[in-house]
Specification:
Layout: H1 4-22, H2 32-50, H3 61-64, H4 69-75, H5 92-97, E1 113-116, H6 123-134, E2 137-140, H7 159-164, E3 167-168, H8 181-193, E4 202-206, H9 209-217, H10 227-240, H11 242-252, H12 254-257, H13 265-278, H14 282-287, E5 300-304, H15 308-324, H16 327-335, H17 351-358, H18 364-389, E6 394-397
Parallel strand pairs: 1-4, 1-5, 2-3, 2-4, 5-6
Helix pairs in contact: 1-2, 8-9, 10-11, 10-13, 11-13, 15-18, 16-17, 17-18
């Protein structure tokens, strides 16, 4: 049976947020002062109803290093998560925690070309052709192609392609690393700072939508998280589960908690560790957006939109070629590293399927078919994201369609 006090507390918090949003605040646009006021108001009114004091919030910096048993018990005090109104955990979780909106301004890379598209759509070949004819360089904008070991299974450009024009940020990350959008953006910034991209047309190509968003809109700087705090919250996730950690987040950072699904363990942990390490809500950090790295006024944006049936054929044929080129050996090499299965590199399509076949759990034909199906599903998700998230400045192309006529400089181009 639900706790009436918790129901009232939750509804009170919602009423406050609705009043703030109606005044023109949004989850990603509120500044640190406004966000802090929002959070204080939520916690204050909730505390009045439930009888809790705001002093029961997250432990202070001096208390975080080692929690006493009684403190740990207090952290996991019961909160009835089922008392939340219907519709609480809708997709606003992405728009807030992922920081999906923001104002784009002038950036440092002029006349850039951005080419997005689903896997196996031919975007890498298009980028290579443009770079070779225009004396350009290619920067990887795909999260999986940054990892080493998986050269073939992530469809990274081969040695022949790499020799034709300069390529950057391919295969430079150890698979034991959880490479993030922020880390990728820092690597791009370093290329700019070092002058590596100077004097050449820069072509960003890949299939990771969040990389393109960070490139064109900027990204929020996040605090450094001490490893001890990171390890602690991951341990708690494993031991207590996402739903119980979500209750903690609702109590300690109501605004962030209300924007996440109770089952979204990774984002819940991220919000908790940011709060624990900095004493500030993750929403405060996200409100302080960085600057875009590219100059949008002189950039050209393209997204490849292949026909579904043709893309399925390309995906299936490509995976067969991957097997011929040594994809199975790559999976064996990766498995020998003994990495955590939750690491991004271990989730590359084809890894788990071929691992299962190597272990005798399924046949190799079944593993191959599963990997092909997973790739088709991934391509569909990518295409859907690009269709709904990329703005009107992105010109739609079919595979093989020429874009030379679309590359004339715009009237306001910066040089």
């Amino acid at each position: 049976m639900h706790s009436w006090s918790i129901i009232v507390e939750s509804m009170s918090a919602i009423r406050i947020l609705l009043r703030l949003f109606s005044a023109g605040w949004t989850a990603t646009s509120i500044g640190s002062e406004a966000s802090a006021a929002c959070r204080r108001a939520v916690i204050s009114e909730a505390s009045t109803v439930s009888g809790k004091s705001s002093s029961q919030a997250m432990p202070s910096a001096s208390q975080r290093t080692a929690l006493a048993p009684t403190d740990r018990e207090a952290i996991f005090a019961s909160v009835d998560v089922n008392a939340r109104p219907a519709g609480w955990d809708r997709s606003v979780a992405i728009s807030g925690i992922e920081n999906s909106s923001g104002q784009a301004g002038e950036g440092r890379v002029k006349n850039a070309i951005l080419i997005a598209g689903p896997t196996a759509s031919g975007k890498s070949a298009l980028a290579l052709d443009l770079a070779e004819r225009n004396g350009g360089v290619i920067v990887n904008t795909d999260s999986m192609q940054g990892y080493s070991v998986l050269d073939v299974l992530t469809a990274r450009p081969g040695s022949a392609e790499l020799a034709r024009v300069p390529h950057f940020l391919y295969g430079h990350v150890d698979p034991s690393t959880a490479y993030s959008t922020g880390a990728w953006l820092r690597d791009v910034t370093k290329l700019i700072d070092d002058g590596t991209l100077s004097g050449r047309q820069v072509i960003f190509v890949g299939g990771t939508g969040l990389y393109f968003r960070a490139l064109t809109e900027g990204i929020s700087e996040m605090p450094d998280i001490p490893q001890s705090i990171r390890d602690r919250w991951r341990y708690e996730l494993q031991e207590q589960g996402a739903v119980r950690l979500h209750r903690i987040l609702l109590r300690e950072d109501s605004a962030a908690g209300m924007m996440l699904r109770p089952t979204d363990g990774q984002r819940i942990v991220r919000a908790l560790e940011v709060l624990d390490a900095s004493g500030r809500s993750i929403l405060d950090w996200q409100a302080a957006r960085g600057q875009p790295l590219i100059d949008r006024s002189s950039a050209r944006f393209f997204v490849i939109e292949p026909e579904r049936a043709a893309l399925v054929e390309r995906i299936d044929a490509r995976f067969d070629r991957m097997l011929d080129k040594g994809a199975l050996d790559e999976v064996k090499q990766l498995s020998a590293l003994g990495l955590d299965l939750d690491l991004p590199a271990m989730k590359a399509i084809g890894v788990r399927e071929l691992q299962a076949a190597l272990a005798g759990a399924i046949s190799f034909p079944e593993a191959i078919e599963r990997a092909k199906i997973a790739t088709r599903q991934y391509a569909k998700r990518q295409a859907t994201w690009f269709r709904h998230q990329l703005g009107p400045e992105w010109q739609r192309l079919r595979p093989g369609e020429g874009i030379d006529s679309m590359l004339s400089p715009p009237p306001s181009s910066a040089t």
